[in-house]
């Protein structure tokens, strides 16, 4: 199965579609200046267990890198994916403040 990921800026998301054009998953975002906040990932149940989430994450991170954006990964799926892909660490916003 071939999955293609593309950005759909008018919907504020990246979409993954199979070879028939069926929507396999989405990764939503909000952009403010140079900062992009990835808010939610949803994978269609027919594609769970495949690598759709990873394909969405990589496409979104590569796009962010090409646009010199700072990434805020609010989405748990993206956060977990980033833990396994340290090559994107420089793009991710990290807080150094401690809450008492």
Topology:
Elements (H helix, E strand, L loop, with lengths): L2 E6 L4 E6 L4 E10 L2 E9 L8 H15 L3 E4 L2 H8 L17
Parallel strand pairs: 4-5
Antiparallel strand pairs: 1-2, 2-3, 3-4
Describe it.
It is a single chain. With 100 residues, this protein is of the alpha+beta class. The protein has two helices and five strands. The chain has helices spanning 52-66, 76-83, and strands spanning 3-8, 13-18, 23-32, 35-43, 70-73. Strands 1-2-3-4-5 form a five-stranded mixed beta sheet. The longest helix has 15 residues, at 52-66. It is globular, with a radius of gyration of 14 Å. The N and C termini lie far apart (49 Å).
**CA-based shape:** globular
Largest sheet: 5 strands, mixed
Return the structural class. Answer: alpha+beta
User: Share of helix among residues?
Assistant: 10-25%
Tell me the strand percentage band: 35-45%
Distance between the termini: 49 Å
Spatially, the strands of the biggest sheet line up as 1-2-3-4-5
What's the helix count?
Answer: 2
Instruction: Give a count of the beta strands, DSSP E runs of length 2 or more.
Output: 5
Over the alpha carbons, how many angstroms does the gyration radius reach?
A: 14 Å
The pLDDT mean sits at 93
Order of helices and strands: EEEEHEH
Low-pLDDT sequence parts: 96-100
């Amino acid at each position: 199965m071939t999955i293609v990921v593309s950005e759909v800026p008018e919907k504020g998301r990246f979409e993954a579609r199979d070879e028939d054009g069926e929507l396999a998953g989405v990764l939503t975002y909000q952009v403010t200046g140079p900062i992009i906040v990835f808010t939610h990932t949803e994978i269609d149940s027919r594609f769970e267990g495949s690598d759709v989430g990873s394909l969405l994450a990589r496409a979104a991170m590569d796009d962010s890198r090409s646009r010199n954006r700072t990434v805020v990964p609010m989405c748990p799926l993206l956060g977990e994916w980033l833990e396994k892909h340290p090559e994107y660490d420089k793009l991710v916003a990290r807080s150094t403040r401690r809450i008492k």
